[in-house]
Design a protein that fits this description.
This protein is an alpha+beta fold and 310 residues long. The protein has two domains: 6-189, Jelly Rolls, CATH 2.60.120; 197-308, Arc Repressor Mutant, subunit A, CATH 1.10.10. The chain has ten helices and twelve strands. Strands 1-11-3-6-12 form a five-stranded antiparallel sheet, with helices on one face. The longest helix is centred in the middle third of the chain and has 22 residues, at 168-189.
């Protein structure tokens, strides 16, 4: 079976590629600061560091350092805090909404600059392919032209939204789509790109089975049913999953359910009971036990914490 390429995967994700931009202005920071971002279900949040360096904190995860030239995309809109490298008491930076743009800035001289915003999926978070995207996409631009391409797209989007001329919103949406596709393409073309799900979307047999799982994660799937969804025999399906992920289809399904649960915990305010039911667990306790075994943390560790509240 011929493996699918990065362009094929992007085509498979086509329903997500219609996005509406919400662009923050150039965000300039100095001193000790923190900029919280609440969960945005149905949106991808991004940050592009154009000068200086900062840290990204997400509940339940290790802190990540971002340097100038880094392009960060959170496809599931996870709640997070961007903060300075300076330790100690930090000033919380408020948002100033104007003309569809969000501005954040500290007083005095700045040493860090970011381009930030959201890409709102017009299909919403109900589209099952949202679950196929990794928790985080980080592109560390090795050359100035690549960073300049991202910066130019964002500047053009901001200018269209600021100008508010006839057709500006449509043009901005098309530019946002180009920005999103560019991020996905550069991520997929990287040697170490992807999660276990994305390679499976490159294979026609496993793609059908994975999409079936994503459509109905709570269903009590059997191997025969997944093989039928993939239009393949049980042996072919198992062989394909083992070749691409090293795991059986049923083991992958269990991991996928927990991944979706973690995404929902960090990207929405849905109750733990609701999330447990939606991904196929009979109770909060059952989900909590499974997440502890898989991630070493209870569901509450991925919830909105005081460090991320506006």
């Amino acid at each position: 079976m011929e493996a699918r390429t990065a362009p094929d995967v992007i085509e498979a994700l086509a329903p997500l590629l219609k996005v509406r931009p919400v662009i923050e202005d150039f965000c300039r920071f100095g001193g000790s600061w923190r900029s919280p971002h609440a969960p945005r279900g149905g949106s991808a949040q991004f940050h592009i560091v154009t000068r200086g360096a900062c840290r990204l904190h997400r509940p339940g995860r290790d802190e990540l350092r971002l340097e100038a030239g880094d392009v960060l995309l959170l496809p599931h809109g996870d709640n997070h805090v961007v903060r300075s490298l300076v330790d100690g008491p930090a000033r919380t930076i408020a948002s100033d909404l104007r003309n569809g743009l969000l501005a954040r800035a500290t007083e005095g001289e700045s040493d860090t600059e970011l381009l930030c915003g959201e890409l709102v999926f017009e299909a919403g978070d109900a589209n099952p392919l949202v679950g196929a995207l990794p928790d985080i996409i980080l592109i560390r631009t090795a050359d100035e032209p690549l960073l300049e391409r991202f910066r130019r797209l964002l500047v053009d989007i901001r200018d269209e939204l600021d100008g508010d001329r006839v057709g500006s919103r449509l043009i901005a949406a098309d530019l946002a789509r180009a920005l999103f596709v560019t991020m996905l393409r550069d991520h997929l073309e990287a040697d170490d790109a992807g999660t276990a799900t994305l390679p499976l979307l490159r294979d026609r047999v496993t793609q059908r089975a994975v999409l079936a799982m994503l459509h109905e994660p709570a269903r009590r799937w059997t191997l025969d049913e997944l093989a039928a969804a993939g239009f393949a025999s049980r042996a072919t399906l198992v062989r394909s999953f083992r070749r691409l992920t090293g795991a059986t289809p049923m083991k992958f399904l269990g991991d996928l359910r927990l991944t979706i649960a973690r995404q929902r915990l960090t990207g929405s305010r849905d109750s733990v009971a609701r999330i447990a039911a939606d991904v196929g667990y009979q109770s909060e306790g059952a989900l909590s036990k499974a997440m502890m075994q898989r991630f070493g943390r209870r569901p509450g560790a991925f919830r909105l914490d005081p460090a991320t509240q506006d």
